[in-house]
């Protein structure tokens, strides 16, 4: 059959799509790029925020109009299956931890499966020069605001063997960036008895021959702390991007407690301090939720102060939105007008900080590996600490010595030396 995939959300969701594509290709199904050409349409959904969930509802309605067999997969299916059933009674529903059921959904009758199952299938389908390879699904946390926990209920680490095989296949196919992703990459191995950690996996992947770089996906601070020595030691290897994505979510201890995060602001600062002391020029990227219940003016100011103190290279700012069946939804809410005003203030601060960081690169030379197409014929490359550099007249998948000629808060602009 001809199958069309449409994917929303994070890198893990994209990796899940590649796993489903791999399973179908093994059964000789054809992946197509247009829903009009397809026999089956697969919508891999996200549900992290209110507006995302609303977008998923609209897209389900739109895709039904094609009159094809419809499969709704991903976090929206796992967290709100009843809503999917109401919107598309005829559709198969597959949760993000039941990916192997995609074969039954495509080949057979309607499927409903949202329960977790252990699988060793890692992607063998890759697009472009960046290979997204899931290493673990689910997390060990239980954050008050998180609906993803309802969709990905169980931590499941893929075996080291299957991950290494996927990396080898990706490198063989020309990938130059390997993104080892998960809901919490540092939780890798906890469900395997805790004897294997992320650093063990990194060392195995680093031993693979080839000219490629590794990017570690998002890690919660408490799980990063569990393996900090091993991760930072692995990060000394030239094949590993000097990049840490550590979501802090708030700069206020009381809000962190309401969020059910497992660290304090001071503990987070210590992690950053240690990382910067051992890995010079490391890129610390974070996530911050603005307007979570319990965030008063003082708590918001504490978050701004943390941003100023740590000087994150990139901040993924999100205005808190109520998610169904989460504990935060039952708490007293911050008014929307207040959240919007705070969001403007925080975003302006983020832009100013990032501009000041990027200004330091002006007229300096740096090594850049090109990984993907940009806008208007440009090519996007990455520095060794994963800052994007916009280039022209270069090939994808190559290393270049670049002089930085301009900058924005979001990226650098460069010319090949």
Automatic annotation (TrEMBL):
**Pfam families xref list:** Radical_SAM, TRAM, UPF0004
Q: What class of enzyme is it?
A: transferase
List residues of the TRAM domain. 359-417
**Residue stretches making up the MTTase N-terminal domain:** 1-111
Q: Which cofactor does it need?
A: [4Fe-4S] cluster
Give the protein family.
Belongs to the methylthiotransferase family. CDKAL1 subfamily.
Q: What is this protein called?
A: tRNA-t(6)A37 methylthiotransferase
List the source organism. Acidianus infernus
């Amino acid at each position: 059959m001809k199958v069309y995939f449409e994917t929303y959300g994070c890198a893990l969701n994209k990796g899940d799509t590649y796993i489903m594509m791999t399973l179908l290709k093994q059964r000789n199904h054809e992946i197509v790029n247009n829903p009009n050409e397809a026999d089956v349409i697969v919508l891999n959904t996200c549900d992290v925020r209110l507006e995302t969930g609303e977008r998923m509802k609209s897209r389900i309605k739109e895709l039904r109009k094609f009159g094809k067999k419809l499969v709704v997969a991903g976090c929206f299916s796992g967290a709100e299956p009843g809503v999917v059933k109401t919107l598309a009674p005829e559709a198969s529903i597959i949760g993000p931890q039941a990916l192997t059921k995609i074969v039954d959904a495509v080949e057979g009758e309607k499927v409903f499966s949202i329960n977790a199952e252990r699988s060793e299938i890692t992607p063998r389908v890759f697009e472009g020069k960046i290979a997204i390879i899931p290493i673990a699904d689910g997390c060990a946390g239980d954050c008050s605001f998180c609906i993803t926990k309802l969709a990905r209920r169980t931590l499941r680490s893929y075996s080291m063997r299957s991950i290494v095989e996927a990396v080898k296949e990706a490198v063989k196919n020309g990938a130059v960036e390997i993104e080892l992703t998960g809901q919490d990459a540092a939780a890798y191995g906890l469900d395997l008895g805790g004897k294997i950690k992320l650093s063990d996996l990194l060392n195995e992947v680093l031993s693979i021959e080839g000219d490629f770089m590794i990017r570690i996906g998002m890690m919660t601070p408490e799980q990063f702390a569990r393996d900090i020595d091993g991760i930072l030691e692995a990060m000394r290897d030239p094949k590993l991007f000097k990049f840490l994505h550590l979501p802090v979510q708030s700069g206020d201890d009381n809000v962190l407690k309401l969020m059910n995060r497992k660290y304090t602001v001071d503990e987070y600062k210590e992690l950053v301090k240690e990382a910067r002391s051992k890995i010079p020029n490391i890129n610390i990227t974070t996530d911050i939720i603005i307007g979570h219940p319990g965030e008063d003016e003082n708590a918001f100011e504490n978050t701004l102060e943390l941003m100023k103190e740590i000087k994150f290279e990139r901040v993924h700012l999100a205005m808190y939105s109520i998610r169904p069946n989460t504990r935060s939804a039952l708490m007293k809410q911050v008014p929307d007008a207040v959240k919007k005003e705070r969001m403007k203030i925080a975003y302006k601060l983020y832009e100013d900080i990032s501009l000041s960081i990027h200004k330091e690169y002006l007229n300096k030379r740096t090594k850049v590996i090109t990984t993907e197409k940009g806008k208007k014929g440009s090519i996007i490359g990455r520095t060794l600490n994963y800052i994007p550099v916009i280039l022209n007249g270069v090939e994808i998948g190559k290393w270049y010595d670049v002089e930085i000629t301009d900058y924005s808060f979001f990226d650098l602009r460069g010319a090949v030396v």
